[in-house]
Design brief:
The longest helix has 13 residues, at 27-39. The radius of gyration is 15 Å and the shape is extended. It is built from two helices and no strands. With 66 residues, the chain is mainly α.
């Protein structure tokens, strides 16, 4: 079963992530951090790798509010 979704990509801009991830398990958290930054009107996140544990707790709190 294939679902086709029409999405208009005009005006979308790809920006490189200027963060270097040194572990093999935070990639999804980085993606969520970039999405959160974009939704808040920023071009990138100011979170550093040393702050990922704090952001994970923030995400957990958001999920538990659902």
């Amino acid at each position: 079963h294939t679902v086709h979704v029409n999405v208009d990509f005009d005006g979308w801009v790809a920006r490189p992530l200027m963060v270097v991830q040194t572990n093999g398990y935070d990639c999804g958290v980085w993606v969520l951090a970039m999405i959160a930054a974009t939704l808040h009107g920023n071009h990138c996140t100011s979170i550093g790798e040393e702050d990922m544990h704090i952001f994970r707790h923030y995400l957990r709190a958001l999920v538990l509010q659902i």
